[in-house]
Amino acid sequence: xxxxxxxxxxxxxxxxxxxxxxxxxxxxxxxxxxxxxxxxxxxxxxxxxxxxxxxxxxxxxxxxxxxxxxxxxxxxxxxxxxxxxxxxxxxxxxxxxxxxxxxxxxxxxxxxxxxxxxxxxxxxxxxxxxxxxxxxxxxxxxxxxxxxxxxxxxxxxxxxxxxxxxxxxxxxxxxxxxxxxxxxxxxxxxxxxxxxxxxxxxxxxxxxxxxxxxxxxxxxxxxxxxxxxxxxxxxxxxxxxxxxxxxxxxxxxxxxxxxxxxxxxxxxxxxxxxxxxxxxxxxxxxxxxxxxxxxxxxxxxxxxxxxxxxxxxxxxxxxxxxxxxxxxxxxxxxxxxxxxxxxxxxxxxxxxxxxxxxxxxxxxxxxxxxxxxxxxxxxxxx
Length: 382
Ligand code: XIL
Description:
Elements lengths: L2 H20 L3 H5 L10 H4 L5 E6 L1 H4 L4 H10 L2 E4 L5 H4 L9 H11 L4 E8 L14 H18 L6 E6 L12 H6 L2 H13 L4 E6 L5 H16 L6 E4 L2 E3 L5 H12 L4 E10 L34 H20 L4 E6 L32 H9 L2
Parallel strand pairs: 1-2, 1-9, 2-3, 3-4, 4-5, 5-6, 6-8, 7-8, 8-9
The structure holds (3S,4R)-3-hydroxy-2-oxopiperidin-4-yl beta-D-xylopyranoside.
């Protein structure tokens, strides 16, 4: 090689070495353009869909700097786990409480996240006074006031709203909630119209669980289609995705992705977690009622108090890999995947449906470390 050429080559390598040292930690490297291999799942999936987590009051109030760091490093969208629900944000007829919801939006904005609001109209965690409003036009007016006040406050700052949550029964009929009992089916369109008027740019979502069930799917498609045909703005269908190691069958999930996206809306997986513990309704002959306290302290129902054995870590890794492979196949229809919690220590599944258990449903363990399921997703998802 000519001497001046070799000098140039040498300088070039020196320059490249300088550039590759620039990024510092692997975390920073993940945010650098194309040339680097992603080191976080959110970086790996950044061109497919948002990756998020639900945050509870403790995380919002930034009690633990390590958790805040993990949230900012691993996710690009957040959902408030409880603090925008009616009983918390609008506990009295004339009284709102925005302390924690304001801090939630600040936290998400401090990392430029896609910010989700959850949930404007829901029969659960409802302020008790609402059930005293039994006149349909009075309830309609009050729903409008509730939605307008909250959505306008965060106009342009909350990018997507779960407008109505859990309006359907498993057989696809509408749930006999207080809203339905007083206003009939119209309450859904009414709520979406109020949200669209308050922030025309926000994405408006219908959100529910067991959205893979064929009968429920048919009911949701029928009602949401009717609303869209009537000119009501609905932008997305949220499938909650509180799943287990064995169910649901992913073909059912796939069929729902197709059916919902055929409505011309985005599909989101809004509350993903995978329980590793048995639930009472999985047990043959178990009586399905809401009081499962008889199982509290039952070791069979809480087998992994000391930690998750390798064999189950592996099953969880395989289940998450299958789930994300499906999401990726439908990346043109799926716009967001949000985990219901940041790490296992904070998952609601430690307390529901049986109190006081030790569950392991997420990608980060109680020490905030990546679990084998996270590594499997990094390896397997192309
Ligand atoms: C759960 C929260 O995670 C718990 O902290 C709370 O006690 C009950 O609600 N579907 C939803 C979520 O839409 O709002 C629920 O969140 C879980 C089921």
